[in-house]
Amino acid sequence: MMKRIVVLVSGGGTNLQALIDAQESGLIQNGKITCVISSKADAYALERAKKHGIKTRVLVRKDYPDVVAYSREMLKALQEEQADLVVYAGFMTILDELVTKALPNQMMNVHPALIPSFCGKGYYGLKVHEEALAKGVKLTGATVHFVTEVCDGGPIILQKAVEVQDDDTPESLQKRVMEQAEWKILPQAVALFCEDRLEVKDNKVYVR
Ligand code: GAR
After folding, report:
1. Which residue among 82, 152, 197, 202 has the highest number of C-beta atoms inside a 10 angstrom radius?
2. Backbone φ, ψ for residue 27 (5° rounding)
């Protein structure tokens, strides 16, 4: 059965683009991006979706009184879209556990560091790379993990390391982490999910 993939975005959408490219090149078998939901009305990710004929929806956090009300609306949207898999691709809003609990091991996130380094509340976007450079780590990378009620704490699906260079800026490091890690492991993880090859046991993910 073709799995229905809903992608959540907030920004430029280069990870969404990597997923669209993987779908069009046939890397993602058994799955189809059926909807893109943005937390920002002006996210460029929406243009990328439209260009490829993918349905879009916008759910803005500040249109709702609190995170629970927002999360209820998001869950309703995901259910309307009959999502089999929900992918956070640069989605910058933390949802209430009412969403993650309703879709256990059916939501995944890409994080621009090697979890458990530089993750958790407050670590998003460029900030992650600023902290990695401030610490002076020689290796960083990206992680794809299942989303649970613990921010960046769910079972790890795939990771890929990227070398830090002495002259890196947060921007140059972000770009290398995207190119060498995120854009590769996110489509791979989605492909594995769609082939039913991910098994979660004792909070660990096994690729079958
Ligand atoms: C990506 O680097 C993604 O890993 C990161 O934001 C960027 C979004 O770029 N996500 C987080 O920091 C989530 N905590 P994109 O919109 O071009 O995919």
Report:
1. 152
2. -65, -40
Residues 6 or more apart in contact with residue 145 via CB below 8 angstroms: 108, 109, 111, 115, 152, 154, 155, 156, 157
- For ligand 1, say whether the CB of 154 is within 6 Å of any of its atoms: no
pLDDT tens, position by position, 156-191 = 999 999 999 999 999 999 999 999 999 999 999 999
Q: Given the structure tokens 């997923």, which residue do they identify? A: 19
Backbone angles phi, psi at 121, to 5 degrees: -55, 135
Q: What is the pLDDT of residues 114-138, one digit of tens each?
A: 999 999 999 999 999 999 999 999 9
Q: Cα torsion at 148, 92, 119, 183 (round to 10°)?
A: 90
Name the nearest CA neighbour of 190 among 25, 1, 24, 33. 33
Answer yes or no: is the C-beta of 187 below 6 A from any ligand 1 atom. Answer: no
CA atoms within 13 A on the CB side of 24: 11
